[in-house]
Amino acid sequence: MTTGTDRSEVVKVEEIEAAGGQEGAAWALVSEREGRKTPHTVVLVRRGATPASFSSVNLGSLASGPLPTAVIGAQAARLG
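and the corresponding structure tokens:
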């Protein structure tokens, strides 16, 4: 995974439940760079003909939980 000029390796991928929308998929990832692990969450949902994606990155690595389902549901509701 590359962000700007920084490269990190994805060391863990776990499929998680996607909330909101009519269809969805979500993954909890952990990347590692120079021995530091950072959790990420990626969510894809569809509502009608509109697809949307949401992601979160825990830069402080203080918590490793996925993006809260309430946040995903609220964003999916805005799709119309």
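(Above: one complete record from the training split.) The longest strand covers residues 36-47.
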